[in-house]
Amino acid sequence: MSVQIIANKEYNGLELYFAAKPDQKIIVRLKSAYFRWHKVKKCWFAKNTEPNQAFIKSLFPATDISAETAVPVAVKEKVKSNKYGVNIGDIFYISWGYDQTNVNFFQVIELVGNVSVRIKEISDEHVQSNCNMSGYVKAVKDKFIGGIFIKDKDNGDLKKVQLSSWGDDSVYIKISDYYAHLTSEDKTHFTSSWA
User: Fold this and answer.
1) Which domain does 52 fall in, by range?
2) 14 and 104 assigned to the same domain
């Protein structure tokens, strides 16, 4: 059975990538050793500990895993930008409302493949106010909040990035019934409310 073992140094983890679905016996052993299935990366993973290294050696005796080298396979490089040029840390915004204009900001926390991103909602701050009825707000990068649009508040939501069909080459993601557009973090947006 072909398996690739990767040390994820960022999370101090071990990842097992099988060429094909392993036998049920192997899956049962993986689960009993507290390895979990990662549905996005399509691998079995656990912390990089000596007991877990010993467990892998028991499954695959020819594998050379030591505490110093962790595994003999190089760590996969993370995707640096996706098909549309979106990077980790980029900010999207939604402007919405009927009697008032509300603005919500979202930060890209992970690139997943070539067209998907994981996002979390971030806070904003008022930078200019006009008579308490209107003003400007801007995103506060890395200040994550619970928000109303993100379902997975701990890990962020997985969204597909799309190119605008309006012909202006703008990039957006669909969140709920709204379209969040890519913006620079220092850009300000108009907002108004009724007193």
Assistant:
1) 3-59
2) no
CB proximity list for 49: less than 8 A, separation 6 or greater = none
C-alpha 120/C-alpha 28 separation (Å) is 34
Structure token pair of residue 155: 């890990």
Q: How many domains does the chain have?
A: 2
Q: Which residue in the block uniquely carries the two structure tokens 């709204």? A: 178
CB 136 within 8 A of CB 126: yes
The CB-side HSE value for 104 (13 A sphere, CA atoms) comes to 19
**Which is more confident, 76 or 175?**
175
For residue 133, is pLDDT > 80? no
Domain check: are 108 and 184 in the same one? Answer: yes
Instruction: Give a yes or no: residue 15 inside a domain.
Output: yes
Q: Using the 8-state DSSP alphabet, how is residue 28 labeled?
A: H
**In the 3-class helix/strand/coil scheme, how is 138-190 assigned residue by residue?**
EEEEEEECCCCCCCCCCCCEEEEEEECCCCCCCEEEEECCEEEEEECCCCCEE
Residues 150-185: pLDDT tens digits?
888 888 888 988 887 666 678 889 988 888 888 876
Report the distance separating Cα 75 and Cα 45, nearest Å. 14
